[in-house]
Write a structure and sequence with these properties.
With 281 residues, the chain is an alpha/beta fold. It has 11 helices and 10 strands. An 8-stranded mixed beta barrel has the order 1-2-4-5-6-7-8-9. Helix 1 packs across helix 2 and helix 3 runs parallel beside helix 5. It binds ligand C2E and calcium ion (3 copies). One calcium ion binds next to loops. It comes from Natronomicrosphaera hydrolytica. This is Bifunctional diguanylate cyclase/phosphodiesterase.
């Protein structure tokens, strides 16, 4: 028993060591990635539920590491980038890149005078005193009005540091920049606490949406969330719609916008542009 116990200990140590090395490697690879511009952006359309028209899009970061040609998913590298603080640089790059792209598309596609783009903001970025001026500067640099850029902040980030974030959300609102609460339903806020947050958009997490056609409890929850949000003058987005059954269920509820693989997958800029062009003809 003793030896097997020690054996287990050794295996455990080795695994921890490998994880630590992997982590360190990722940290330095991420630092290089910023310098070497290894990031790009994909855009996922956000669709008006009633009309099927394009409303705007969500920008999502992608990282193709220089050491291989594999795409590393954001769920893997964002937490590391947050811990090292590199997320601030990635976030600033995203802001500038997305504003530049949005400005170009708004000129190129005047048939969408209200076209907007949302960008995900990490809780670490929210802690930076320079976030607001970085946003205002990026908008000014690309001659964009504030209502065409929306920020997505997760429910758990907002809940994590409410006393700091609520005044920031109020400042953003005063600047005309709308904020969406992302992944709603996965954090710890109660439905009743929603009224305390100065947010304009509520994105219902896909874990609810994806069970909506299978389980009555889920559709009852989503219906309740949507009704409350509408009463609080928020726009409601149902994200992660993958099946026609899910879409049909959502269409019976009061959701303004839909997003998901069924409607459109996230696409690199060039592909998004040809998608926009195809919709013209
Ligand atoms: P999120 O903000 O909730 O973004 C939605 C995620 O769901 C995206 O994954 C998107 O590709 C995926 N998705 C869209 N439609 C569907 C669907 O129908 N089914 C399923 N299963 N998935 C769908 P992605 O791009 O891998 O991003 C994962 C998360 O990483 C994001 O979740 C967000 O929290 C974070 N993230 C992505 N880009 C950025 C960024 O630029 N900055 C920051 N801070 N975080 C980012
Ligand atoms: Ca998001
Ligand atoms: Ca989300
Ligand atoms: Ca998510």
């Amino acid at each position: 028993a003793k030896s097997s116990g020690r054996g287990r200990h050794v295996v455990f140590d080795r695994k921890m060591h490998e994880q630590a090395v992997g982590r360190l490697e990722m940290e330095s690879a991420l630092a290089r990635a910023v310098v070497n511009r290894e990031f790009h952006v994909v855009y996922q359309p956000v669709i008006v539920t009633e009309s099927g028209e394009l409303a705007g899009m969500e920008a999502l970061v992608r990282w193709r590491s220089g050491t291989g040609d594999a795409l590393i998913p954001p769920d893997e590298f964002i937490p590391v980038a947050e811990e090292t603080g590199i997320i601030v640089e990635i976030g600033n790059w995203m802001l500038d890149h997305v504003c530049q792209q949005l400005a170009a598309w708004r000129k190129q596609f005047p048939e969408y005078p209200d076209l907007w783009c949302s960008i995900n903001i990490s809780k670490i970025q929210c802690e930076q005193p320079g976030l607001l001026s970085a946003i205002v500067d990026a908008l000014a640099r690309h001659h964009l009005q504030s209502h065409v850029l929306k920020l997505e902040i997760t429910e758990s980030a907002i809940m994590h540091d409410m006393n700091r974030i609520i005044p920031m959300l109020e400042e953003l609102r005063a600047l005309g920049i709308q904020v969406a609460m992302d992944d709603f339903g996965t954090g710890y806020s109660s439905l009743a606490s929603l009224r305390r947050f100065p947010i304009d958009i509520l994105k219902i997490d896909r874990s609810f949406v994806q069970n909506i056609d299978r389980c009555r409890t889920y559709s009852a929850i989503v219906a309740a969330i949507a009704t409350l949000a509408q009463n609080l003058n928020m726009a409601v987005v149902a994200e992660g719609i993958e099946t026609t059954g899910q879409l049909a269920q959502i269409q019976t509820l009061d959701c303004d916008y839909v997003q998901g693989y069924l409607l459109c997958k996230p696409m690199p800029g060039e592909q998004f542009e040809s998608w926009l062009r195809e919709r013209r003809s």
